[in-house]
Design a protein that fits this description.
By secondary structure, the chain is mainly alpha-helical. 58% of the residues lie in helices and 11% in strands. Strands 1-2-3 form a 3-stranded parallel beta sheet.
């Protein structure tokens, strides 16, 4: 499995910008090399927006089954694991929404500045 060391891309998992940098790197590896392990060794500061912009986005653009098969994470602190799980659990809830709620959610996701 391919490995991405988060600490080589950013020093903290806090900002949306850093989440987008990691997301782009993950997409690049998934396209060219397949499955990927995201290694958070050395990262001690986390925020939910980082995980939302990176991992929730990746899950919402795949099925949960495909996400689980292709992407794994490790070496998170307790706080990091809690933030990651919150973002992923919220993204997974999307798949159990009624169709009309999915349409509303998609509209919000496609137009976040509204």
């Amino acid at each position: 499995m391919n490995r991405i060391k988060v600490n080589e891309l950013c020093k903290m998992a806090l900002s949306k910008r850093d989440g987008m940098i990691l997301r782009d790197k993950i997409e690049e590896v998934l396209i060219s090399q397949g499955n990927v392990f995201i290694d958070f060794e050395g990262i001690t500061k986390y925020a939910t927006p980082f995980f939302n912009i990176c991992f929730a986005y990746l899950l919402l653009n795949r099925t949960p089954e495909v996400y689980d098969k292709m992407i794994s994470v490790g070496n998170l602190t307790q706080l990091g694991e809690k933030s990651y799980n919150m973002a992923i659990e919220n993204a997974r809830k999307y798949y159990s929404l009624p169709e009309d709620e999915k349409v509303k959610t998609d509209s919000i996701l496609d137009n976040p500045d509204i």
